[in-house]
Structure formats: structure tokens, C-alpha cells
């Protein structure tokens, strides 16, 4: 069976695969551009996107604003007409400025998670940028879409449903992760029904995209059979030649065994899935002093006086120093990656008819 294109209003991706946003410094222009060139949707992560800019240490916000344009322009050049957008955490400090900047540079899509992006529609008003919230429950989908309808008389252009097998921060309780995994299919069906109902009200089709543990073509076919219009994949693209992460970061994926991938407690108050290493063992027993605040999260999501370590600093360390002494986020299937490949080879595999 040939995969159908992913149609988001007037935006069309030839292959219904979105590359998930991975920060810090993992999904930048090279990876996002390559995915878009192959027909998927390439996503840049805005999380400290300007960490390589000279001014970053003195003015991280300014560096990030500059890098948003540089990285997007580069990705679009690589993409050769493909679809490129951004992932922005709703918990980001100066979140509104990030959204407006991404719209200003011409983002095709913006995907927002790490909190409910309640005012996202007004931030993209008058632009061609398509928007999607990330939700993990039917309750969240109902609340957010209902709020957008009431406040703005608008709805989502598409919705990303992130399941409990995803990497990075998760919208599930750590002590009930197995139960969440078992119940996810039913939850997904309920979310699809909710999204379809809002679509009918607005006389439009709202694609639902599933993320979390998607690895093979059979996984894609499975979620399409449940009613999804496409999938989002992140972990699968890390160990590619095009991925923007350093070789040491990619090697940590290659070296990981199934038992090395587990749940950690993030200082932002959410569980996260990462590769076990010296750093994840260290944070079990000690608090790591914060050397410098980089203003990465809004104040309600980060209290410097109480957090056990700085999430921004350790994610930066993962791509600038030795990843074994830093936090390396990864999806549940990261252990299946045993060698480096290319984005094109992955797409050739994923589009091979079963």
C-alpha cells in the first residue's frame, strides 16, 4: 500500500511523516531540511537554537532570535520546496516572542507542547503558518480545542498526539507509565473522535498525527489504521549523517541497550525518557549546582532555588561536551539503532510498500 500525502489545509507533505523537534541542538537545519527534501515535514527545535552563536553566553534570547532565521533559511534551502517548521515549548521563557519570530521568518508549521498553548491562535493571526498543539490525553484535547473555539473561534490545523513511548519530556505520570502505554490506543481513538467533532464544527479536516515509539513502516500502517493521518518520528532520525547532533551524541544511541533507556525526573516537574549514564545516576543522589541561568523556561516552570539541576545546561552539555555526563533524551526504541544511516535510506524503508 502506498502512503498517502499528509494534507494540512493547503499545505501538502508527500510522505505523512513529521520529524519530531529535538533540542538542544539535535534537530536543526541539516536534519529538518533533509527530512523535508524527502517529502516529510522537517522540524527545527527552538530550544536554545542559537547556542552556537557568538553572542549566546551574553544574550541567549537575542542569539536564539537570530538563529531562528538562519536555521530556517538554511533548512528551506536544503529542503528544495519541502515543508519546514518549528517545535516551540509553551513553557519557554518569552514564548510569545519565539512564536512571533517563527511566523515572521515564514514557518510553514508550528508545533507546541510542554504545556497547553492557550494563546497560540492569536500569535499567528494573519499568517499562513499552520499550528498544532501536542496533547497526550483526550481531556487535554477537549479543553484546548474548546478554549480556542470559545476565545478565538478557531481550531487547530492539525493535532499531534504524543504517547508514553516518546523521548524527552512526557505528559504522563512516571508511576503509571506501563498503564499509560497499555491504554494509549483507546485514548488515541477518543482523541481522534474529539478532533473530528471539532473539524465538523469548523467544516474542515483536522489531521491527527501520532508520536511516540513509531519506528517502522508497520508502525506507520498501524496508526493510520486507527484513524491517524500521519506519524511523528524523532529518535529514528538521530543517528543519521544529516542529524545536527555531534558524533559522540549519536554514539550514545548506538551503544544503548534496551535496559539503558529509562524514565528520569526532570527539574521542570515532568518525567522524561533518557539514556541511562553517569549523569542520570548522579542526579539520583545529589543536587547539581546551577552555574548560570539561561532564561530557558518561564518562571512558573523553573525555580532556581529548588530545582535539582538546570535542564538547559545539561542538554547543552550533551551536544557540546561528553554526553555520558549529560542528559541524553531518547525514545523507547533507541536501543534498536545499531549503525549510522541517512535520512534518504530511512524514507526509502518507510515508503516501501508492505
From TrEMBL:
Keywords: Coiled coil, Flavoprotein, FMN, Monooxygenase, Oxidoreductase
Keyword Oxidoreductase appears in the UniProt entry: yes
A Pfam family reported for this protein in Swiss-Prot or TrEMBL: NMO
InterPro entries cross-referenced by the UniProt entry: Aldolase_TIM, NMO
Classification via Gene3D superfamilies: Aldolase class I
Entries under SUPFAM superfamilies matching the protein: Inosine monophosphate dehydrogenase (IMPDH)
Coiled-coil positions: 174-201
Highest rank taxon of the organism: Bacteria
Any one Gene Ontology molecular-function term assigned to this protein's record: monooxygenase activity
Function: Nitronate monooxygenase that uses molecular oxygen to catalyze the oxidative denitrification of alkyl nitronates. Acts on propionate 3-nitronate (P3N), the presumed physiological substrate. Probably functions in the detoxification of P3N, a metabolic poison produced by plants and fungi as a defense mechanism.
Name recorded for this polypeptide: Probable nitronate monooxygenase
